Amino acid sequence: MTSDIIAPEDLKKADPVFGQLSFDDHEQIVFCNDKDTGLKAIIGIHNTVLGPALGGTRMWQYNNEWEALNDVLRLSRGMTFKSAITGLNLGGGKAVIIGDAKTQKTPELMRRFGEFVHSLSGRYITAEDVGMTTGDMDTVREVTPYVTGISESIGGAGNPSPITAYGVFMGMKAAAKYQYGSDVLEGKSVFVQGIGNVGEALVEHLTNEGALVTISDISQERLEEVRSKYGATIYGGNDIYSEAMDIYAPCALGATVNDETINKLQAKIVAGAANNQLADENVHGKLLQERGIVYAPDFLINAGGIINVYAELENYDRQEIMRKTENIYNTTLEILDNANANGITTHVAALNIAKERIAARKRENNK
Ligand code: NAD
Predict the structure, then answer these.
(1) DSSP secondary structure, 146-181, as one string
(2) 117 and 242 inside one domain
(3) What is the pTM of this model?
């Protein structure tokens, strides 16, 4: 039946969620609105077969709601596979809050967001992502227990970013071992794009090992700060993708490996913290492979943060967090070998293993 209210050319807009390109059998999408605090948020629950959907909340000034929706769809899906491949009993979820974290984030808005999270009774558990701090999660904790990444003083595991950075560093070393036959990064030129919470901690590991680190960020203040602390070189050009380098480490936002950048990339390895680095995972994973560039799958090597927050639910200690995060090295090497042996991309190899774990659990649950 067609509607006589909506014009035919607009009908496709009447199917704006399940029809999205990034929609991938997500279980539940929740739109949250509160006029008083100005909250506009979307919670995406992709899959809960392995456990409750856990994933951070991102606050970002999206250009429009389509962008926000697509981001939450892509990010929540990524969380499903991240937890699955890391061996955690967690499903995949994520939330986005539409707005400027610097000017629009208030304790009232965070508490109202927390109430929406609470209304899902634990199907979704939140944490911090871009634009969020541990303090914001503490505010959410005032209204719901379904939050991780809270301060150590109130029983949390603290800021996950240094652990994420350590995992990325481990994944990068594994990729170097695979590409160069040695995991020593001394003397290797590494471009770290985005030196926020994770990027800075990664720069520290890299400079400690003697890598030649170049940094880029949209914040001049951050660049000066990180340069003065670690002696990294600030990137002065305007096309980072065309620069000669050994390793490209995207640590800002996703989709930087795309149609425009892929043919320019000089790096031999792509390994970074950003989620969804491949704009189109089917197309760009294959193109990287054809160009002989080793890609350490993002959802595999940036799992340190989720390992850290999972400790809050499972009560394991810092030693166990570090052991699990260090193991990203072994898992990455296995995935790179697996991809090579099967003639598939590293992204697909990682995805296959994650999907198989979910399918096996589903079979078990249905017995
Ligand atoms: P952050 O907000 O602290 O840092 C992001 C940095 O990137 C900021 O300094 C920002 O100025 C910079 N930036 C933004 N756009 C840029 C651009 N176009 N070019 C260069 N720099 C740019 O975020 P974070 O916590 O460090 O996370 C970084 C990335 O890693 C995100 O994609 C996040 O989703 C992902 N990630 C983070 C964690 C974690 O534990 N924090 C875990 C897994 C994945």
Answers:
(1) -B-S--GGGT----SHHHHHHHHHHHHHHHHHHHHS
(2) no
(3) 0.91
